[in-house]
Fold each of these.
Amino acid sequence: MRRDVFQAIADPTRRAILALIATEAMTPNALAEQFGTTRQAVSKHIKILAECQLLEQKKVGREIYYHFNPTKMVAIEQWLEQFKKHWENRLDQLEYVLINLNSKENENKNKSNDGVFR
């Protein structure tokens, strides 16, 4: 069964595995030690991450090392981009409103100060 990247990152343990492997290649045993769990439990998560091509494996001697494949994160970045643009537009609108409010407040202060003794 082919999974997508979003299924893979939905699980907090898989996100933690990605964070660890992003800094250095690791074996399933090394990962299991990080989580205080069995190799079999970690292997299930690795399988899902590998199916989504977020991890690549490389055999070194008798050990298999898993490496992070950042190019597969592009789908996530593209999906998030639509929200980023939306929120940038909303924040720009808010900034415009706040600047106008500040200008009007300063204008009102200046008008009220015109009748004050100097």
Note: The longest strand covers residues 55-60.
Amino acid sequence: MIFSLVSSDRTQRNNLKLLQGQFRLGIRKNFFTERMIKHWNKLLREVVMAPSLLVFKKHLDNALKHMV
């Protein structure tokens, strides 16, 4: 499995947080899927729980404007 969900209900921003794995090889930390986990976990609940891809993109653009 590529991603694992955090099994705690005490998440602050969104309830679909991803868990970063522990790996022996240092090269794995450079994979895109591992680098984007911390950014995904920082997204707001409205972005993550979007009902469609179009709505997700609109919310993501709005969230990224406020992050930068």
Note: Residues 53-67 form the longest helix (15 residues).
Amino acid sequence: MQPIGCVNSSHQMKRDVFQAIADPTRRAILLLLATQALTPNALAEHFDSTRQAVSKHIKVLSEADLVKQKKVGREIFYEVNATQMKQIEKWIEKFKGLLENRFAQLDDVLSKLKNK
């Protein structure tokens, strides 16, 4: 497993996934694509921005490997790249585990202070 947002197979730098999901519009696009594959035009209908602006967001998500495209006839559909999303989930789970340990330690200290 390569680090999230590091390099792709052609050794070119790719966009960091956390920078990609920092934008609310890109998060909304991911939510839409989580339910079904959509064309850029179909995605643009959900936003008060131009198709070009939505295409730029799709490009960022593609560079971060969060979405992938599939061609159906003459149309290009975008869908969530579940593999990359799982890597994000694994990173968050590690972070969550660290926080839970810290809170457990804090609970222990507070319990000891309370019992004194």
Note: The first strand starts at residue 67 and ends at 72.
Amino acid sequence: MIYSAQVLVLFALYLTVFVLAVWATIDAATRPAGAFVSGGKRTKNFWLALTGAATAVAFVAIPAPLGFGALSFLALGSAVAAIVYLVDVRPAIRPYSGGRGGKSGGPAGRTPPRGGW
């Protein structure tokens, strides 16, 4: 009985990492490339490659009825990549994404500051 509970918890954890990685990849794909530069973050292609690789590794790490159960030790890296994107990059680029996901005009009607030199 305890073994079954452990397997279900492990499966839920790996599935959660996979869902986070998919969410990060889809969000990165829908943001404009200029938003990443304006937000002072790495390029869109960098984040798409990182979150896409995280999604692939997270899928492979899911235990067997859905995934392969291989490379499970790399699922932690997938979780880190997805979480860094979702809690650091996504809020930074949101104001520069046009009408999607942020207030247009920034706080109090001001435009957000531009990044870079």
Note: The two ends are 60 Å apart (CA to CA).
